[in-house]
Amino acid sequence: QAQLVESGGGSVQAGESLRLSCAARSGLFSSYAMGWFRVAPGKEREFVAGVSWHGRTTRYSEFAKGRFTISRDNTNGIKNMVYLQMDSLEVEDTAVYYCHPVRRDDYEQPSSDFDFWGQGTQVTVSS
Q1: CA distances in angstroms from 43 to 76, 96, 112, listed in the order given
Q2: 14 DSSP 8-state letter
Q3: How close are the terminal C-alpha atoms of the chain, in Å?
Q4: Are 102 and 51 in contact (CB under 8 A)?
Q5: What is the Cα–Cα distance from 82 to 44, expressed in whole angstroms?
């Protein structure tokens, strides 16, 4: 059973929006801050946004500020949902997006407690 399942990606025009979803198995991730990362073609993985376990604290990379919104829903007893609302998409946002637990003291770093990643969801933005 996959522990992290991302979805919601697609192909859009610049300026349009997408909402990514991440289903994380409840009980395993409910006490962890969660983050979104992305891997663009030919580039290293980079942090996009993070949210605390309770959802009240968020952090964004500079390129995401003002355009992306991260949130989470822990009310489902089976899965925790983490969302990334992406507005005003740019061609440079083209990448595969992944969700993953992050360090409590540094949201920009993936938690080392988990060494697996989901399959990601592809976002393609064209001009």
Answers
A1: 35, 11, 21
A2: T
A3: 37
A4: no
A5: 23
State the amino acid at position 125 in one-letter form: V
CA distance 75 to 60: 24
Mean pLDDT to the nearest integer, 40-64? 96
Residue 96 belongs to what H/E stretch? strand 95-103
Per residue in 16-45, pLDDT tens? Answer: 999 999 998 877 888 899 999 999 999 999
Asked whether the CA dihedral 25, 28, 32, 35 is positive or negative, the reply is: negative
The per-residue pLDDT for range 59-114, each reduced to its tens digit, is 999 999 999 999 999 887 778 899 999 999 999 999 999 999 999 999 999 999 99
* Type of residue found at 9: G
Q: What is the 3-state secondary structure (H, E, C) of 17-84?
A: CEEEEEEEECCCCCCCCEEEEEECCCCCCEEEEEECCCCCCEEECCCCCCCEEEEEECCCCCEEEEEE
What's the rounded Cα separation, in Å, for the pair 123 and 53?
25
Dist. CA 88–CA 107, nearest whole Å: 24
